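Fig. S4 source data, part A: sequence.
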Amino acid sequence: MSFCSDIKTELTDIKVSRCCVQALTYGLLLFGRAFGAQKISMQSENEAVTKLYSALIKKNYDVDVKITVGESKNTTYKAEIADEIDRLKILASVDFGMVEGKISHEFFNRACCEAAFVRGAFLACGQMSDPAKSYRVDFPVKNEALAQELRDILARHSVAANISTRGKGFVVYIKRSEMIINLLALIGASARSLELIETTIIKEVNNKTNRVFNCDGANINKTIEASMKQRKAIEYLIKREMLSSLPEELIAAARLRLKYPEASLKELCKNSPETITVSGLNHRLKKIIEIYEEIK
């Protein structure tokens, strides 16, 4: 199963408190595949989610839910209220805000009820990428009003989300790792939240290590290239018996470079018999190269 499906399976095992049952059911219904007089259904690749959807509707509204299994590229489970009277019974049980497509807050007696509602929404339509690859959670919704209200509910629980269009619908999405951690904690996936924190730390450490490694590698390459250029100039001057005619400080710099061919300027300064700064030594070696280039 996918990372997202594993999380959903974990969420279906959470014991729901009595005050949150209807909020959880409402989230599943409202964010399912269809929710209206003509059709009430939900489709998922996770069998546990489909069974929870069916069990909660049966418990809250005493209506039958038809479950079918579809075989395509991936096995899908579809739960549907086939009887029209049963659908109307569910719709009539509460003001679902069907006209404006908004969220009814009748079931949100406590903060935990809102959390249960968001859990239901995630189970019904939530999509989450594997954090080892990328950070992304999507809630595809039918209309902009519903998207805005879901975003507002998330914001009240320290989860910052954005909205974008997708086809004829909208997507409430979260891309920041710390916000996804907050979301997982909110909907009850505490273990996954801790795993994500660990994954985030590991990725940050690896990224930092790679940056340092790349930087060190670049510096080493620069040191090698500079040393090769300096030694080439010095060896040329020695071959032409011209090095001894240079000022004493340049001769000392040349001897130091030949003695420590792979050393950086900082390391050369430490090994120098006289006290000299990095910029001072660099200036002397550059002067040798200039003399070499003038002669060439």
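Fig. S4 source data, part B ends here. The longest strand covers residues 66-71.
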